[in-house]
Structures are given as structure tokens and as C-alpha cells.
Amino acid sequence: MSGFTRTLFFRALLLGIAAGFRAMSAPAALAWNHDDALRSAGWKKWPVLRSVWGRRLLVAASAGEMVGDKLPAAPSRLQPGPLGGRIAFGAMAGAALGTEGRGKAVVIRSAIVGGVGGAAGSYAGYHARNAAVDATGLPDPAVAIVEDAIAITLASTAVRNR
Fold first, then answer.
1. What's the whole-model pTM score?
2. Is the pLDDT of residue 85 over 80?
3. Residue of 7, 51, 6, 5 lying closest to 158 (CA atoms)
4. 32 within 8 A of 49, measured Cβ to Cβ
5. How many separate domains does the chain show?
6. How far, in Å, CA of 153 to CA of 139, rounded?
7. Alpha helix (H) ranges present in 42-139?
8. pLDDT by residue (tens digit) across 21-32?
């Protein structure tokens, strides 16, 4: 396995973890960094990412998720629906990064790594956030804002090619 492919898998893992923190952070990072992606990135041609309006909607959905996450009625990310969504968005984003490599096998492996990252990020984010609230006494929404920043940083770092 080449160094490029290993780096690609690591980036897919980071993007999946970001999706575990905030499901829409991964597709929003792809949308936000669309114009700076590698020329060979096949995901740039995906219809929703090719469209300016599609990219704007993904970023808006991510912002909406970050607001909704702080509401008392927000379900636990570990419930089957939200967890499945985070795994799916992690896998989709991992597959997107996989298109920067060579061959379908890289895309499939990147999707798997992204999905695993989505699951790991969901559990790690849930437990870290609860531990931070317990340890600091800060209100949950304040800690959630820090989690938002971590998700954005992970997703942006994973998508950038610099």
C-alpha cells in the first residue's frame, strides 16, 4: 500500500469521526472545500457537490444540525436512527475521498474506514461530551459548541489536500 493510500485512509477515518460528532459535518466539509480539491477527485463530479446550490444546502444543513443538537428534544446520537445516519454519512464521505485514489477497491475500503470512523466518533463524542459536562459543570450546550468546533476542524483537515 502506498503512502498516498495510507494517508487517504487516515483522512477517511478523520472524516468519519467528524461525522460521528456531527453527521452533516462530513458532507459539508466536502462541499465547502469543493473548489480546492484535487483535480482527480471523482467526488467533485457528484451531482449534489457539483451544484453550487447543492453545496450551499449541505453547509446549511450542517449549521442546522449544530443548532438542533443543542435543543433538549434532540435524540441521542446512539439511538439506531441517528447512529445509522452518522455511520452512513461517514461511509459516504470516506467513499468520496476514496475517489482520489486508484480503483474501486480504494473507494470501497475508504467507505468502510469512514463508516467505522462514524461509529467510533459517535461513541467517543457521546462519552467525551458527557464526561466534560460532569467534570466541568458547564451546561451541555456549552460543551456541545466545543464539540462542534472539533467536528469542523476534523472534517476540514480531512478534506484539505495540503
1. 0.95
2. yes
3. 7
4. no
5. 1
6. 22
7. 47-50, 52-68, 80-98, 104-136
8. 999 999 999 999
